[in-house]
Specification:
Rossmann fold, single chain, 8 helices
Length: 185
């Protein structure tokens, strides 16, 4: 897999070695990428997505957590049967065996959104146990305490059981690229 030079410098070589070993050996893998905004979590997930597609021809779907939940809210009000696929995904009939859930925690924090993602995590746990889900990557800015507070200890425990957690360095690529003019940003 190919990464920009400064991307590798800001995270450990072991970090990439584990990921590449899983991808290259086509193991089933489940990752949580957590870290500050702009540190490259989504970027790495997209690199993996393209690598999986190129090497194995497999489709990896990517869902933005905020838009995904918003779409779900609209769909539960819809009468169109073609819109019901998302409801099936949440309720355990996931159409994709490989997916990226990007930016968990970016959705509006309500009781309903908490229940939605708790249910999704629970169904993903069952799919992993039944060998239905082959690859899943969750990216988040949330720390362990925040995940526990939002989604509950059961959801967090299930994530930690099945996922390898990678904590990215506290370095924002976007901050690096900002322009400073006349001493002001």
């Amino acid at each position: 897999m190919t990464y920009p030079d400064d991307y590798i410098k800001n995270n450990s070589a072991e970090f990439y070695s584990v990921i590449e070993n899983c991808v290259n050996n086509r193991k089933h893998f489940h990752f949580i990428f957590k870290g500050v905004v702009g540190c490259g979590k989504t970027y790495l997930a997209d690199i993996i997505k393209e690598q999986i597609k190129e090497m194995y021809g497999s489709r990896v779907s990517r869902y933005d957590a905020n838009r995904y939940y918003s779409k779900y809210v609209k769909l539960i009000m819809s009468d169109d049967p073609d819109d019901k696929w998302l409801l099936n995904l949440v309720y355990g009939d996931m159409p994709d065996t490989s997916f990226i859930l990007d930016d968990l925690g970016s959705e509006k924090d309500t009781q309903a959104s908490r229940e939605f993602y708790t249910l999704l995590i629970d169904n993903n746990y069952k799919d992993i146990k039944n060998d239905v889900c082959h690859l899943s990557i969750i990216t988040t800015n949330l720390g362990e305490d925040e995940i526990n507070r939002r989604y509950g200890s059961r959801a967090m425990d299930r994530l930690w059981e099945n996922y390898t957690v990678f904590t990215f360095d506290d370095y924002s690529f976007r901050q690096r690229d900002r322009k400073i003019i006349n001493g002001k940003q």
